[in-house]
Batch of 3 targets.
Target 1
Amino acid sequence: MSAEAALTPEAARAVAPELFPERKSPTKAQIDAAIEKCLDIQRRAVTFQKRPFAALLLGPDNETVLLSHQSVDQVNHAESSLARLAYCHYTKEYLWTCTLVSTWEPCAMCSATVYWAHIGRVIYAASNEQLATLTGPGNKDNFTMNWHTRDVLLGQQKDVEIIGPVEGMDKVVMEESDVYWKTTRKS
Ligand SMILES: [Zn+2]
């Protein structure tokens, strides 16, 4: 490989076009509805003493929920756990037309797992900065990373689409999640 060889989505598509079928864009109503469903999973997770994070896998029609996952613990996050599960269940070709929906912006570990699982789109409601305002500094339940999904996924050989934060739904997710975080932050 020459040093000049471009690591671009165009080059990847030229080599394996079957891995990159066309993706159907979600409407604003479909995005909001998917986040509402994700919030339901998050609410239930909190009743089982889990932290307020949740993710689901949306099918190619942007409406069918194929899989869902709550946060398990500080290593087994909702999004990366879901991405691994998705990769067990479905083919790469199919997953490229699916969407991982999350209440919160996926961290570096989760964003990378989405990439390797070959899921074609990420939708998150609220941003990492918004999470940091809820967890506060020195919160042992979540030493929030200073990182963004786009830092990991943009400029790669796969052009995973990223939608987020979602205006309106971000505030809803923040309000819901703060019921938990306000009991854990230091100030
Ligand atoms: Zn994560």
Note: The chain has one domain: 26-181.
Target 2
Amino acid sequence: MIFPQSRKRTPAEQRIPLPLPPALHYNTAMISFQNVSKKFGSHLVLDDITFYIDKNEFVILTGSSGAGKSTVIALLIGAEKPTHGVIEVDDMHISDMDTSTLQLLRRKIGVVYQDYKLLDKKTVFENVAFAMEVCNEDDDKIKERVPEVLEKVGLLHFQDKFPDELSGGEKQRLSIARALVHNPYLIIADEPTGNLDEENVRGIIHLLQKLHKEGATVLLTTHDPKVKELVKGRMLTLEKGKIN
Ligand SMILES: Nc1ncnc2c1ncn2[C@@H]1O[C@H](COP(=O)(O)OP(=O)(O)OP(=O)(O)O)[C@@H](O)[C@H]1O
Ligand SMILES: [Mg+2]
């Protein structure tokens, strides 16, 4: 379900006709990749992979650099199309979804990027607020919601600082706050601990585990053995285009 019946649909959502596209298959999976291949030119990055991630699972996707972890994520959020195969998120086909429906679904997927993707000229508060402004949320809702998510990641006291004034761990927590602003049911974190020291790695993992306990499905990619030791979750490994 993208639109809970309990709340009023925003103007952007009202432009999208209901019901949403029906799923081909019904299952309990939050994510399903069925016989998915992805080629960039002649380079076959993913070779006929099939996997499922259940609702409220915590899954770690590992694999060496260049194995295709970020490609899996790009396919999952519809930023790339598969060369073959079917991808579903919450029983909805990502591969044939039109752009506007995809944008609505993406609000329910919180993505945390390895390189943070923060806006340098905006404050901590404004970086999070911006994710709501682009969805035409009203000012009152923004003023209420932004402090809530900053509090959750322990950055409320830094709300007037700029990204340049934050440490790596704080920047990563800000990017998590931004990913949480629409209350996503799926959180995808691509190497969120890439450049962090052990204390900050623990902090980020702890935060993701807290969100998981609160009901989110979490997919975390890493090639860091330290992270694999710290996280309790199912491990999927990408190697030579295949998944194990
Ligand atoms: N848009 C693209 N165009 C062409 N090739 C691409 C593109 N995106 C990824 N690739 C190639 O696909 C392969 C997998 O890349 P990907 O970024 O998914 O790896 P990764 O497992 O995330 O690596 P890392 O751990 O370094 O982040 C690489 O060889 C990369 O060069
Ligand atoms: Mg990557």
Note: Residues 40, 45, 63, 65-71, 191, 223 surround adenosine-5'-triphosphate (ligand 1) (CB under 6 Å).
Target 3
Amino acid sequence: MSETLTKLAYRTMQQGKSLVGLAHKEASTRLMGLLAPDGTPKTEPLPAELLEQLRQSMERLIELDWQEAEQGLYPTSLLFDAPWLDWARRYPLLWLDLPLTWRRRQERNVRDLPRDVNREAFPDYYLQNFHHQTDGYLSDHSAALYDLGVEILFNGSAEPMRRRILRPLRRGLEAFAQRPASSVRVLDVATGTGRTLRQLRGALPHAQLVGLDLSSAYLRQANRWLSQLSGELPQLVQGNGEAMPFADGCFQAVSCVFLLHELPAQARQNVINDAFRLLEPGGVLVLADSVQLQDSPEFRLVMDNFRRIFHEPYYRDYLSDSIEARLEQAGFGAVAAESHFMTRIWTARKPL
Ligand SMILES: C[S@@+](CC[C@H](N)C(=O)[O-])C[C@H]1O[C@@H](n2cnc3c(N)ncnc32)[C@H](O)[C@@H]1O
């Protein structure tokens, strides 16, 4: 396929995903209004001007995603990497799950978790139904629906947003360019179902990749997605990002995507501190999470609506938290940040 055709195919696919996301949200909101009106969240309507700003911001994200693939930061095939058949099979399950989500919202029940969960094994803040999702993060059912749910939530832009960590991460790893690529170790904290590890594998085909998460169910799903890839299988480890089971200085890069907004402030600091401990001097940390009020005030309504619709108990606090200050407090230097659509990316280096 020629370059122009591939680009056209990518843009068309993204537009299709965006339309499906919007249509799903519209249909499910209407259905909830009919069947569970008490549970309908009180959201603010988005003015046309803001919708246009969002559209343009997403366009820029997709254009950048294409350009960075063209520049060779990651293979163009990664842009099309989506488990379509799998998602098609799981889509009806999302609908079947919706009434449970509504009921939890109606009853303000945010601690509705599987009975057999060993509560001692997890921090208290984790034992909740984030996004009102069935079983929280603690079942195979939840892990099976997670990726599709996120794709729909972000109108198909979740993967392009995750990929924004790749350029700063690769640039940070240039400090270790004299080493064999296969000796470079990269950790993805709160790897969930491993979508970020898939992107990392595309950009760093020879590096040793490790993913850590508190949920063994999500790690099982990650193992399913990752074992389809050729090359070394990333190592998956169950653990708490606040105190990870690895030796000091044993990674050259650490990434962490969409975790910080789900943590209370002290846990946020603990994760950043522990990433600092795990990095070799000169190593790079790249964080990705929601944009915040200070850097993207124009999207305040979208952020407000997000926390009204989904159970996100720490999001309000996160929105005005200074991640830059937290990175510096942990000892990091060369702190930089940039925003892409609804995602903020922070890069920081452990001093030599
Ligand atoms: C919103 S999901 C993001 C997952 C993944 N990074 C992504 O991009 O899709 C949050 C993840 O963080 C994990 N998590 C939450 N608190 C954690 C902690 N203290 N330590 C490790 N993982 C944690 C959850 O199990 C879940 O997989």
Note: The chain has one domain: 1-352.
